[in-house]
Design brief:
alpha+beta, Aminoglycoside_PTrfase, 5-stranded antiparallel sheet, globular, Phosphotransferase, Aminoglycoside 3'-phosphotransferase, Chain: A, domain 2
């Protein structure tokens, strides 16, 4: 079962037909899929990313446009674009080949020191937010004011009640309402990665080494970016907050954004993407812990 209506069926044979002849001899194998793209490992050093649907190509187009510009301002490794494929009768959307970055997803078995990890992540966010953003589009979600999302998030909260229980949803709704009650942030617009969850944070030798999947990259208010700390244990959250000197108001807004991301994912993907729902429920646990 697919995640979205109109998904494009892809397999190794189709991707092989799409690839330029210079890569014809490289091994090709499935490498998993996210909510936006299906991926295939090409040789040892490359990955092919193909949008799941024609109407979900915007994420990849943003990576194609902005990754080269962002890379020059970032210390941590990020994906490097190698090739852009045009729509064709075989595959009706743009697709791309990028460098494969070795590393393990951030988690209890891979991170050696969560406080150091939180400080490293804060350093990445500080560098990203400092890059000039002339010409980039403002975020429609997770980067603006909370209020325009209230109808959507309130609906997601209601849909979560039979799934995770009234008690948790009551607590999450209170956190969401607390964020809504605050004045709109007066912080300036900055670049946002937009999806700094652990699966997009790669670890080598116990430390944060690379950040991947810039499909949600946009420009907006920084509060939403900080929501990522509720995907991490308390030691990482505290180190991140200290490194960026985040005040309580900013953290209250960020926590509300974390609620928005969690309940949206649970309600939308409950039947179709259990692994993603598990990520969202882990986020809920951390949100309610602090």
């Amino acid at each position: 079962m697919g995640l979205h209506e109109g998904e494009i069926a892809v397999d190794v044979a189709l991707v092989r037909r799409l690839l330029p002849s210079r890569w014809a001899d490289l091994p090709l194998r499935p490498a998993g899929a996210g909510t936006e793209n299906t991926m295939f490992r090409l040789g040892d050093d490359l990955v092919v990313r193909l949008p799941r649907t024609v109407n979900r190509t915007d994420a990849l187009r943003k990576e194609i446009r902005w990754l080269p510009r962002l890379a020059v301002g970032l210390t941590l490794q990020i994906p490097r674009l190698r090739y852009v494929g045009e729509p064709s009768p075989d595959y009706p959307a743009e697709w791309a080949v990028l460098d494969w970055i070795d590393g393990a997803e951030a988690g209890p078995s891979t991170v050696g020191d969560w406080a150091a990890f939180g400080a490293d992540l804060a350093g990445f966010v500080r560098e990203l937010h400092a890059i000039a953003h002339d010409g980039a589009a403002l975020s429609w979600y997770r980067g603006g004011d909370l209020a325009p999302c209230d109808e959507r998030i309130s609906r997601a909260l209601s849909e979560c009640r039979p799934l995770i229980g009234d008690e948790q949803v009551d607590d999450l709704e209170a956190i969401w309402r607390a964020g809504l009650a605050l004045p709109v942030s007066t912080a300036g617009h900055v670049w946002l990665h937009g999806d700094l969850k652990p699966t997009n944070l790669l670890v080598r030798e116990g430390r944060l080494a690379a950040v991947i999947d810039f499909g949600a990259v946009s420009v907006g208010l920084p509060d939403a970016e900080h929501a990522t700390i509720w995907d991490l244990p308390r030691a990482a959250r505290q180190a991140y907050r200290t490194a960026l000197d985040l005040d309580e108001v900013t953290c209250t807004r960020a926590r509300a954004w974390a609620v928005a991301v969690a309940v949206s994912g649970i309600s939308y993907y409950w039947e179709t993407f259990p692994a993603f729902v598990t990520e969202c429920r882990a986020r809920v646990a951390f949100i309610l812990e602090s």
